[in-house]
Amino acid sequence: MINIDERKILKNLFSYILLIVLAVVILVPFFIGIWTSFLPTADILKGNYFSTNISLTNYLDAFTKTPILRYLGNTVVVSTLIMLAHLLFCSMSAYAFVFLDFKYKKFFFALFMVTMMLPGEAAIIPNFQTVKALGLLDHYSAMVVPALTSAFGTFMLRQAFLQTPKELKEAADIEGLNHFQIFWKVILPYNRISLITLGAYSFLGAWNSYLWPILVTFSNESRVIQNGLKQLQSEETFNNWGMIQASAAIIVIPTILVLFIGQHYFKSGLNEGAVK
């Protein structure tokens, strides 16, 4: 008979084996892509993935022979603006739904939730017509304005704000703070982990956006990295698979940095919360 301790050990062993298998499935293609970015195109075409002819030539070519730096700059600007807009507008709307009393509050919040049920593709045509009528095509604002707020972000922060101790709000009221002061000095600092999470989520979502930017941008002046890579693949100078892999690796680096930075602050916030 297997006792309880042995069952626990077998259960943990099975869990670790499953996690290792999943990690291998996810990470192996990633590392293969990174490795091939250092290989010459000739070796890649021959399937010689264990070649020792590794160099940084593909990366140098990507930076010097393509407008990838322009694409990266465009993407950083657009993603940062969308992230900041989400943090501002979603936190303000979440504060209103939690701490303000107004007529039909539940009804308006239900409308927010309804928009989450609609696929993003359903709004493409009306959004495109609006952006075109405003003369914003092929500009940063064409990508930023339709994404200034997020129903999911409002819902997420509302749930976080609901966990704020009532004593904090009551103490702020006793001190005579107005709503803006309570929002800025009490609610936002207390819920910074949720804000960091939403910021990382919004930045990565904007960074990986593909369909909408390809519809509203037509030149390198405003084209973002995801569409820029696709554009470069169709050009004669980009029939270089080593350079394609190098460009793909360059695209991934900022997202990894955002995840690591977000994780660092998330853990710091949890440790501070545990101490308190």
Automatic annotation (TrEMBL):
A Gene Ontology biological process noted in the UniProt record is: transmembrane transport
Query: Where are its TM segments located?
Result: 12-35, 76-100, 107-128, 140-161, 182-204, 241-261
The record's subcellular location field reads: Cell membrane
List the membrane topology term(s): Multi-pass membrane protein
What is the superkingdom listed in this entry's lineage? Bacteria
Q: Which GO terms describe its cellular component?
A: plasma membrane
Q: Which PROSITE patterns match?
A: ABC_TM1
| InterPro entries according to UniProt | MetI-like, MetI-like_sf
Record keywords, A-Z: Cell membrane, Membrane, Transmembrane, Transmembrane helix, Transport
Give start and end of each ABC transmembrane type-1 domain.
Answer: 72-262
Q: Which family does it belong to?
A: Belongs to the binding-protein-dependent transport system permease family.
The protein's name is Carbohydrate ABC transporter permease
Q: Tell me what organism the protein belongs to.
A: Companilactobacillus suantsaicola
